[in-house]
Design goal:
7 helices, 206 residues, mainly alpha
């Protein structure tokens, strides 16, 4: 995997400090990329041994293969979720710049303002992630939460809005005041980027 640079200047965000973003992106996110590569390399070696008959590999109670496969989904999702999160930061919070997504949200949740209130409370209820996704199977927008990178995800869903509510995302700046952090997430939200994700995701159900 290759690390993706930020599309915005951390110093320009409102409320969320440059220090927080630099630690979050340059250390935590980059660490997930490196760990994903490390796990992938070891899985390649184990797979070769299994195919060659040198390693039976699997045991559901404990085996190296089981541990690697569990770590793989945690690390890879750690990469992807953080990339989605960073990709929708750096905006001005103006949802009128996303007319199609705003309409779809209003059709489902009555108004964008109402959705933001609901999504904010979902973020308060989650231990790790709150997401707005396009559910390919249902053919509509859905909101889901995840308490860990590899927990709470629903197969067939494409992320559009991803909010990181792990404490590392806000504790330096806000302490335990998660709600103020989420409010600033919306103030810094890039609705243009979310609109592009929505349009791209929606076509998979058509």
């Amino acid at each position: 995997m290759e690390t993706k640079p930020l599309k915005f200047s951390p110093a320009e965000l409102k409320g969320i400090s440059q220090k927080t973003i630099e630690i979050h992106h340059d250390k935590l996110y980059v660490g997930y990329v490196k760990k994903s590569d490390e796990i992938g390399q070891r899985l390649s070696e184990v797979r070769k041994d299994i195919i060659a008959g040198k390693n039976s590999g699997g045991n559901q109670t404990y085996s190296e293969l089981r541990a690697l496969k569990e770590g793989e989904t945690f690390a890879v999702n750690g990469v992807y979720l953080h990339e989605y999160y960073f990709d929708v930061l750096g905006g001005d919070g103006a949802y009128d710049k996303a007319p199609k997504l705003s309409k779809a949200i209003s059709d489902k949740w009555d108004s964008v303002e109402g959705f933001i209130k609901y999504f904010t409370e979902c973020g308060m209820a989650a231990r790790g992630w709150a997401l707005l996704v396009w559910d390919i199977k249902a053919g509509e927008l859905r909101q889901y939460n995840g308490d860990a990178h590899n927990q709470g995800g629903v197969w067939g869903c494409l992320p559009i809005i991803v909010l990181d509510v792990y404490e590392h995302a806000y504790f330096i700046d806000y302490g335990s005041d998660r709600k103020s952090y989420i409010a600033d997430f919306w103030n810094n939200f890039d609705w243009i980027a979310a609109e592009k994700l929505y349009k791209k995701s929606k076509q998979f159900s058509e």
